[in-house]
Specification:
- The chain is mainly β.
- Helices cover 0% and strands 49% of the residues.
- The chain is built from no helices and eleven strands.
- The strands form two sheets. Strands 2, 4, 5, 6, 9, 10 and 11 form a seven-stranded mixed β-sheet that branches. The protein has a four-stranded antiparallel β-sheet with strand order 1-3-8-7, with no helix packed on it.
- The radius of gyration is 13 Å and the shape is globular.
């Protein structure tokens, strides 16, 4: 089983990015999935989670209303749409399958002017 994130970039405050997480070698549609992030010098924190059918999304308070988690079970891909980005959103973003203790390698998001 493997997860690969992509879409990280340098963006100005107020900008948008969409992260993707491609799952392979397992049926991702069977599992709840999550996005986490880790900023320099800080602990990894959960950003958003989603049920197997794409329902029941939950968000950290710091991103509520700005980020949207979604998934395409046909493509075995998890997404994180990030809008109104702030400097404090700068971090490495990881996707996760908690039931498998499976992590991707991460993708860097830097928000800076």
């Amino acid at each position: 089983a493997h997860l690969e994130e992509s879409g990280g970039a340098l963006v100005q405050p107020g900008g948008s990015l969409r992260l993707s997480c491609a799952a392979s070698a397992f049926t991702s549609s069977k599992y709840h999935m999550r996005w986490y992030r880790q900023a320099p010098g800080k602990e990894r924190e959960m950003v958003a989670s989603i049920n197997t059918d794409g329902g029941g999304p939950t968000y950290a308070a710091s991103v509520q209303g700005r980020f949207t988690i979604s998934r395409d079970n046909i493509k075995d891909t998890l997404y994180l749409q990030m809008n109104s980005l702030k400097v404090e959103d700068t971090a490495v973003y990881y996707c996760n399958v908690p039931a498998l203790t499976l992590w991707g390698q991460g993708t860097q998001v830097t928000v800076s002017s």
